[in-house]
Amino acid sequence: MAKGKRMTIQEAVQLINDGDMITFSGFTIWRRPMAIVYEMVRQRKKNLHLIEVNSGTHGEILIGAGCVKVLETCWIGHELYGKVGANAARKLKSGELIVEDYSHVHMIMRFAAGAMGVPYLPTRASLGTDILNPEYDALGKHGLRDGSNPRIPRRKFEFLTDSFYGEQGDIIHVPAARPNVCIAHVQQVGEEGTVRVYGQRYSDAEAMKAADRVIVVAEEIVPEEVIRQDPTANLIPHYLVDAIVEQPWGAHPTGCFGYYEVDGMFIRDFYNKTRTQEGFDAWAEEWILKVNSFDEYLYKIGFRRLDMLRANSSYKYSTRVKRGA
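Structure tokens predicted for Glutaconate CoA-transferase subunit A:
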């Protein structure tokens, strides 16, 4: 196969510039491109503007490592394996991180608007809540809505009335999300970039379409003529993708439906050890900075642990993971 869009993890991360607005595929602790995240820390990316529907373990790692300057999301944490992100909270309190808070549905609408190529979408969601309180416009208070950055809207929200039917009450205009880069982890990608996702797709299509550049990490790269035989199963076409990377287990410790489970023990250990900056630095030294590649990281995790997480091909989930404990 000609190289084309195919890259190594190291080459793909070089497409991400310091100061870029970035977003990711997946949902909290599912299908996050962790192989790319670890390499971003190794390459010491900085001043990133992370914008997501919600964030998780991957965001906590980038924030703890000092890669992120601005976070726009509705939530960050590790679901049942840890409370709301300790690294984000610590950096926010110290003034090292600016956090802009939107509701979940607002973030979905922002990415939908970005994917559609329109500047905003209307909604009535969150009326009467402090989500809309101008006192909590963090980007505005930091002087970042002055129009100098074309990725940041000049207003957090706009309030208008209905000019079509004359309905009473405010209509909220939610600004589009316009990231520089979307980094996605998926189950399969074609040689030219056609993306296939099994299981829940979350807001992946909107995130990819809203971004200027798309990097796709896949469990496997498959022949393009094969993946196109069932076009209804594919998420986005090849021409929207700029780089593809084949990395089995590349979402670990988050899960990848049909391939492996979330490594809850690993995430819980990360949460417990990184509540302080000293704890995070020690964890990052062990699991990222002293590990030269993702393959070396997987070797460190060990075959037995990975095999326990591996999904049964019929059930699509692991029959070896103890649940409910």
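Residues 80 and 324 are 11 Å apart (CA to CA).
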